[in-house]
Design brief:
Distance between the termini: 28 Å
Order of helices and strands: HEHEEEEEEEHHHHHEE
Number of strands: 10
Structural class: alpha+beta
Shape: elongated
Strand order of the largest sheet: 1-6-7-5
Strand content: 15-25%
Length: 269
DNA sequence: CGTGTGCCCTGACAGC
DNA sequence: TGCTGTCAGGGCACAC
């Protein structure tokens, strides 16, 4: 499931294919994913030239010379297929350049596609309240101390809150909390400053390692070039219920409002 | 405002 | 073989 590292990997995979290329044709095989596509999406994209690619939180950004940015979210199962031999059932949007054909494939349709004025991107509703990038300079122990102050919610819930920090999902939050030695259900406001320093380091470490590994895989995630990521092998707690954590404890799983948390009660306090 | 719950969607998988 | 049930979860709506 694409979290920040997978989206980053996807954007890096799209860059050599799309940068400076003119979009010759856009085919919409349906009118929506999670929500309807913007009006006239095809016409507004056709003929535009890609001027740059980027990422904000778990969103991929494709800038065009028309002053618009195509914003994509991969949801649970979304991926871009580059030059697929043939199109499949879940290739909902197809973008063609002179040299390539790209298909946005999303079996579970939790993804989204929007076209937003580049100049107003930060004010776009989905972006306006986002917290800092976890790999950027604003994400610090000071920032977390401020965000956690007087909060009784579990630290895991706040790390998943995109207004606190933008781009973390269930897998990397579990991993980061394990690395930092902090129990997922600990009240956020009770965590000491030195431990927040460790948490910030842990978040950066797990994300950096995942990006370096080319994004992780969860059954249906594939890199844009079609190769599967392999960071899954490096997960310390996620999906490892009942296994030794590596530091003497045993990984436990608990479910809160239908969501799994993996952690080691011996190592995380 | 802070906190918690449930829904969307489909495919993989387990069990019978 | 084919059926049923369970699970995956990001973002958002909604209840209290």
């Amino acid at each position: 499931m694409p979290e920040l590292p997978e989206v980053e990997t996807t954007v890096r995979g799209l860059e050599p294919v799309l940068q400076d290329q003119r979009i010759e044709r856009v085919t919409l095989n349906r009118s929506d994913l999670r929500r309807p596509f913007p009006q006239d999406l095809g016409q507004r994209l056709t003929g535009a030239t890609v001027t740059g690619l980027g990422r904000r939180a778990k969103y991929g950004l494709i800038d065009t010379d028309r002053g618009d940015t195509l914003v994509f979210h991969l949801g649970m199962s979304g991926r871009w297929r580059i030059d697929p031999a043939e199109l499949g059932k879940h290739d909902h949007v197809v973008i063609e350049t002179a040299g390539h054909r790209l298909a946005l494939n999303d079996a579970r349709r939790f993804g989204s596609l929007d076209l937003v004025p580049t100049a107003g991107l930060e004010q776009w509703p989905a972006f306006a309240a986002l917290g800092p990038e976890p790999l950027g300079p604003e994400f610090s122990a000071e920032h977390l101390a401020k965000a956690f102050k007087d909060r009784i919610a579990p630290v895991k819930a706040l790390l998943l809150d995109q207004r606190v920090v933008a781009g973390l999902g269930n897998i990397y939050v579990c991993e980061a909390l394990y690395l930092a030695g902090i129990a997922p259900h600990r009240e956020a406001g009770t965590i000491s400053k030195p431990r927040l320093v460790k948490l910030v380091e842990a978040v950066r470490d797990v994300l950096t390692a995942a990006i370096a590994a080319g994004g992780s895989t969860l059954k249906d995630y594939a890199r844009p070039d079609g190769e599967l990521g392999y960071f899954a092998k490096q997960w310390r707690v996620y999906g490892r219920e009942g296994e030794p954590c590596g530091s003497g404890g045993v990984v436990e799983r608990r479910v809160d409002s239908g969501r799994s948390t993996f952690w080691c009660p011996q190592c995380q306090k």
